[in-house]
Each structure stands twice: as structure tokens, then as C-alpha cells.
Design a protein that fits this description.
The protein is mostly helical. The protein is built from eight helices and no strands.
Length: 159
């Protein structure tokens, strides 16, 4: 007999997908503990998680491409190409999809770095210590060194 709070795996997956886009690997890792818990309790017939994920993908409800696009757009205003690429890999996005996103990311990286720098600092570094601090900050955000040098050089030249 099922209790009210028991939720089917499909329902749980749809609830996750209703909130935001997930990659297949990400959704699989979120659902796996529930599959294992159901099996250990012997509550419901065993569910084939991969078959469920295949079905969600076939219906267009689960898409690695949409998940990658959403992550890129959400992170672009705050992070550099290296950091975004790392996050995409962590979320299990295929290398082909990451490679497809790279040209756009690299194209807008200088502009994004300038915006991040402007929000955080707004003024050119006055000495080497301040310049190093600003460079470390931009590096921690995943911006490439050549982009960081361009941002700081232009800001110094602008004064």
C-alpha cells in the first residue's frame, strides 16, 4: 500500500524538469538514490532508470543541448569560458555540445570580463599588488589570461 508522500520516479523526474533543464547525467544522479531506496524497501516494482531517461529524451522533455544552452546563458554574465566549460563537463554534457558552445563563449568573453571587472572594481589598479588582486579575481571567475590582460590594459590606458 502506497503512502501519500510516495512519488513515482517518473513524477519525481518531471518535477525536477519543471523547475529547470537538467542534463541526462545530472538527472540520473538525482534520481538514482530514489531508485535504490525503492528497491531496498521493496515498495514498487523495480524501475529501469535508463529506460525512463530514454523515454523523457524521446518525448523532448530531457535535452542535454537545452541544459547546456541554459547554463551558458545563466553563467555568461558572471564567468569566463574556462569556468563555464568546466561546469558543463561536471554536469555530464557531451564534448560535441561543449565544442558547439565555445565559439560564442570566446566571442563574448572580453565583453563579459569587462562587465565583471567593472562591477567588482570599477577603477584601474594603482599598483602591482592591486593589479595582482584584480587578475586573481578574474582568473577565479574562469577568464583567460590574455582576456584579463586586455581588460586591465584598456582600463589603465583609459585613465
Amino acid at each position: 500500500m502506497r503512502k501519500k508522500h510516495d512519488v513515482t520516479l517518473r513524477t519525481r523526474a518531471l518535477q525536477y524538469l519543471a523547475r529547470r533543464e537538467y542534463s541526462r547525467a545530472e538527472l540520473r544522479s538525482k534520481l538514482l538514490p530514489h531508485v535504490l531506496a525503492d528497491e531496498s524497501c521493496g515498495q514498487s516494482p523495480p524501475v529501469n532508470l535508463d529506460a525512463l531517461l530514454d523515454d523523457l529524451t524521446a518525448r523532448g522533455w530531457l535535452s542535454d543541448a537545452r541544459a547546456a544552452t541554459q547554463l551558458v546563458h545563466a553563467r555568461r554574465s558572471r564567468f569566463g569560458t574556462q569556468r563555464i566549460t568546466h561546469e558543463l563537463r561536471q554536469k555530464g554534457i557531451a564534448e560535441e555540445l561543449i565544442s558547439a558552445a565555445l565559439p560564442e563563449l570566446k566571442e563574448t568573453e572580453l565583453e563579459a570580463a569587462r562587465e565583471v571587472w567593472q562591477r567588482k572594481f570599477g577603477t584601474a589598479p594603482q599598483d602591482a599588488k592591486e593589479k595582482a588582486k584584480q587578475m586573481r579575481f578574474l582568473q577565479s571567475r574562469g577568464f583567460a589570461l590574455n582576456v584579463i590582460f586586455k581588460v586591465l590594459r584598456l582600463e589603465e590606458a583609459g585613465d
